[in-house]
Amino acid sequence: MFITQGLSVTTSILLCWLIRIKRRQNKLLLAGAVFTINNIILLYGLSEFWRARFHVYLVISILQGFMLYAAFITALIAGVYSYIFKQQSRPKLLRALAVGLYLGIVGLAVFNAYSPVVHHLTVQTDKPLDKPLKMALVSDTHLDRWFGNRQLKELVSLIDAQHVDTVLLAGDIMNDSTYYYDKTNMHKQLSKLTAPLGVYAVLGNHDYSGNQVAIAEAVSNAGIQVIDNKSVYLNDAVWLVGRSDETDYGRPLAEELLPPIDTNKPVVMLEHSPSEIRLISHLPVDLHLTGHTHGGQIFPLTMLMKYSRPLLYGAKKIKDTQFLVTSGYGFGAVPFRLGTRSEIWVITLESTKKSAD
Questions:
Q1: Using one digit for the tens of pLDDT, what is the confidence trace for 80-124?
Q2: N or C, which end of the chain has less CB nearby within 10 Å?
Q3: What's phi and psi for 120, nearest 5 deg?
Q4: If we measure between CA atoms, which residue out of 195, 196, 217, 215 comes closest to residue 205?
């Protein structure tokens, strides 16, 4: 509520400056229009909190927030131009610059959301492994109206080009339901995601939104094994342990998933959230793979969230466990990324030793 009103004030001020409104009456009319529109959108969003309508509200709010970024950069450039270089201010040029910066910020945020990159990581274990295992990690696809068949087609193409042994999906496969997945027949594209040792998935918090049974069924029907709280022995060499999301009230402790397996073999744990990194670092897990955070997704959250989590994004080794948190392939509620980018990770697990015959 307070954010909406604050954005209304700043947007009104910026628009008055941009279109050079001078008369007090016209300024009040513009401010009133901005306040009215913003609050109508707020009420519209709250009528379906954290669902499709609320996402529309978030998009409008973030677009106004980007106006603040453009205004700040414009003011900074104007200050340098006037006070450091001692040049006379040029209002028309500054307005054109502000518009260009705003369009550039929005364009960059959309580009980062829809133009994925591939990162590579090599992880070594002192447990025996004859042949390196090459895995693709994908998280947070959030399949929905803004992210669907075209992005799945690109995902399949990117992973096929990497020639991985297995593909791992770290949750939030759908964005709360299978509605748009079914409506646009995303099954056709998702089922093309294949690998020699199989494709495996765990569910995330947006999958555990009350529709987890339907989501798990849809994922399974696409040829992907859902391994929440299950383990798989990959190629008779590496244990893959899946764990359900922390929003699953029946989720077992991480250590409870390990006794059935031989931890003298390499162990890879896959779950959605990195919330228990410190606890897992004390377990015989060689590689821990998660997503969920989106890396903060949009500045300044990319910086602020670092202080609330042991690892917001990237790779970090703690004790004998290598942790990797991906910012995700999709983006969730809003189709913007600023300070992060859509991605997949290709991880090669190799041993410093050879397996015993």
A1: 888 776 777 788 999 999 999 999 999 999 999 999 999 999 999
A2: C
A3: -125, 145
A4: 215
